[in-house]
Amino acid sequence: MAATTALHRGARAGAPSASRRTGLASHWLYALTFLSAAGVILITCLIFLQLYWNSALARQKFGWHFLVTEVWDPVNSVFGALPFLFGTVVTSAFALFLAVPIGVGAAVFLAELAPRKTSNLLTFLIELLAAVPSVIFGLLGIFVLIPILQQFVVPALKSVLGFLPIFEGAFYGVSLFSAGIVLAIMIVPFIISVSREVLLAVPRDLREASLGLGATMWETTWKVVIPFAKRGILGSIFLALARALGETMAVTMVIGNTPHVQASLLAPGYSIAAVIANEFTEATGDLYLSALIELGLVLFVLTIVINGAARLLILATTGKGERHA
Amino acid sequence: MKTSYLIAAMLAVFTAGPSQAATQITAAGATFPYPMYSKWFNEYHTLHPDIQINYQSIGSGAGIKQVTEGTVDFGASDGPMTDQQIAEYRAKRGAGILHFPTVLGADVPTYNIPGVQAELNFTPQALAGIFLGKITKWNDPEITEHNPGVKLPANDIVVVHRSDGSGTTYVWVDYLSKISPEWKSRVGVGTSVNWPVGLGGKGNEGVSGQVRQVPNSIGYVELIYAVQNHMLYGKVRNADGKFMKADLNSITAAAAGAVRNMPDDFRVSITNAPGSATYPICSFTWLLIPDQIKDPAKKKAITDFLHWMMTKGQDMTAALSYGRLPHPVVAKELKAIADIH
Amino acid sequence: MPNLWQRRKVVNVAMLSLTAVFTVATIGILLFILGYLFWNGARSLNWNFFTKLPVPVGETGGGMANAIVGSAKVLALATLIGVPIGFLGGVYLSEFGGKSFSSVVRYMTDLLNGVPSIVIGIFAYALIVLRMKHFSAFAGGFALGIMMIPIALRSTEEFLHSVPVALREGAMALGASKSQAILTVVIPAAVRGIVSGIMLDLARVAGETAPLLFTALSNQFWSPGWNHPVATLPVFIFTYAISPYPDWHQQAWAAGFVLLTLVLVVNVIARLFLSKGFSHAPR
Asked: Residue B102: enclosing H or E segment and its boundaries?
């Protein structure tokens, strides 16, 4: 009895005593696995520390101003994160703007409307979209998306909405707009996958009660099911956001690599991950390198915060850990 | 059964590669001479199968940085290392770094204007104005004045520059600084500068790629990139007032003056060189070789390559539109090889 | 009331149709990507692509033989580095873990999973490339290996956790010690799920480019051993795609096609493998 309870997940009353009870042979397995688990903690902390230490030079020199300075000047050694923060946030926000309605909408279809088998198959396919490597999105972005945007989408957009400041100015193909669209395509599968799970976890009785009271299916979904699942859906959005923030290759191939802050989405921009990818191997001078690493630190902290929020929200709704898409 | 196949496959993958006798050298840097270097290193490997020089064109800035960190065996750059960078090298590696010129090249203004097939003439002021963001339309008087007969549209000019640290940039901004005081004070010279306007492309490859894709754009690339990609490039007015197109003759002419006064460390700028037949935006490009190479096999391979490069290798330059090194420079360099310990 | 009812019905149909449209659109994008890559990439595939090394810039007839093998090498290394740590860590969490330590490990694992790949690249550069003084396949494998840890760990934990208690109790009743039970009963029972999880993990890092830029660099030739820069498919795709040479563009498409096919095939196999063994997928 004591031995079996020791194996139950519940009885975690001090692992050492469990292994003592079940014999010396367990020791080496315990030690090995413990070291691996501890190793994960070590590696993660080491990454953070490396970023923190190696960015010391830039942090000391620029302080908090780093986050709001628009200048990125290697010649005069003045570095500011604003253009990259701006580009990262704007492209991700735009991506969410496109991906959330589509993602949640598709999740609703897959969870509420589609027959189970079809739903599973379609979800399977959509999760394959999540497996497509970033560089391939970049490849398609350059040769397929940008020409389509240049020839059809942007002229149409400008003729209708051109008066808005966000659609002002010339469109060169590479831009925040293009990067946002590519990101939207890349993150939509995450939103769909997690939201669908979350919606499926909503108890049947709620739906049936609503329908029983005369609501249409849509009204049930919109006013009952989604609000019930809203934390999980929000979690999926945060997850997608964290993914979008860190995306490097696809973004750097279509964003334009221009460190300026501009009002128009059609203008070229830059993101934190893209500038690191472009300039890291050549940052001559310790301050330059340190500034790039500080950018990496900012990105790291940003993704930690958002991932953390995502995790809490999803946990609250489905009772499971973070989704692995 | 299955595991043994798996192991055999893994062994095959892991051991795929050159035999033990081969020396593989890693080099990185400039994209400006990359077409030439990739040809050279390929040819050299054919001649000496046991020597592989793996050159990665990641930009002059990266070449300087990585050779300073010691992660590559030698670097390459078209912007010579500054005194500060040389001092940094000495501090980090405890030895000196040598510059060896390899070829002469030129930065050309390449453009993509719908409807325009002609070769445009650019004055220094036009180029400075465009890249400063002050000249914004293709039909600006500064451009149209010198291009009679060419119908230039009233479209906005899209500037394309390098997003990475670049010797090609260095040559371009070195020239702009010489002919435009405003550029010199506002932006300055370096392998990476704070560009007033424009899109960024990675490497010469990226800039030419962008100019090809984006209508109404103008970028600066090494001559061979424009040639290989059948892109239009303009003439630039030289210090003597003539509009010159970049070609072997005009490039070689630009080096003539420098040859007479070549400094011992070979670091010299030949932009805006005098002479009626010179193209004004030319430069030497250098290999950055440590003066102490510990590994004897690598040292022999590198010094042998340098010999070959200065002699046989120079015969291959014309085919790719690079200017060969003038004889006095070669003579001086051959002697300098002895400085590598 | 009829008007209101009509309106509600119309809205109902409209919105639900919209959700169907969104789903079709998303699937459509996937099919488009596959189709386009297949069309463009497959027709650029030729014998040269698989057997030749890259030729000098501007010339045609080169291939990516070294990149294909290089990718295999780097991924093999990544698996050797990341999977043991992830797997063993997962065993710990599932079989041995104390409550608070386990939650710390889980939290850190999720953190690690969320670290942008470019940051991992910086980490591997500082830790390995600078110390060893060269770019190498090892550094690249190390970076990708770290990226593999979180998913391997969570996968292992989840599948071990789902092994029925009855199996464990049965082993104990037969006199097995804890580690014997784990090694001979629990893990084999979960192996299907764990292997699929690792396959999915591998497919995910196979397409990573950013970390390789600062670690494996690239190579025009074959890369001997571990200590030299190595050519990889994703880096070649990136380099060739942004270049101006049409021949390189074609090769980029071909490489993209090869990479995508491999990634998707592994994904499909892993998921099918999984669904045969368990009633719930590892989501």
From this structure: strand B97-112
Exposed (0-12), middle (13-18) or buried (19+): which is A243, by Cβ within 10 Å? Answer: buried
Averages of pLDDT over runs of 10 residues in chain B (341 residues) are: 63 54 88 91 93 91 91 92 92 93 94 93 95 94 92 92 87 94 91 87 86 91 89 93 92 84 89 91 94 92 94 91 89 90 86
ipTM, interface predicted TM-score of the complex: 0.86
- B217 vs A contacts (CB less than 8 Å): 172
CA angle A110, A116, A119 (to 5 degrees): 35
Quick check: B79 and B191 in contact, CB under 8 A? yes
Contact C228 B54 (CB under 8 A): yes
Q: What sign has the CA pseudo-torsion B89, B90, B92, B98?
A: positive
Query: C171 to chain A: nearest residue by CA?
Result: A4
User: C123 φ, ψ to 5°?
Assistant: -60, -50
Q: Indicate the SS3 state at residue B192.
A: coil
The answer to whether C134 contacts B72, with C-beta atoms less than 8 Å apart, is yes
Q: Whole-prediction pTM value?
A: 0.86
CB contact under 8 A, C271 and A124: yes
Q: How far apart are CA A250 and CA A177, in angstroms?
A: 13
Which chain B positions have a beta carbon within 8 Å of A172's beta carbon? 158, 199, 214, 217
Chain A residues whose C-beta sits inside 8 Å of any chain B C-beta:
71-76, 142, 146, 170, 172-174, 252, 256-258, 268, 270, 278-279, 281-285
Strands B199-201 and B158-162: parallel
Judge: A18–C123 Cβ closer than 8 Å, yes or no: no
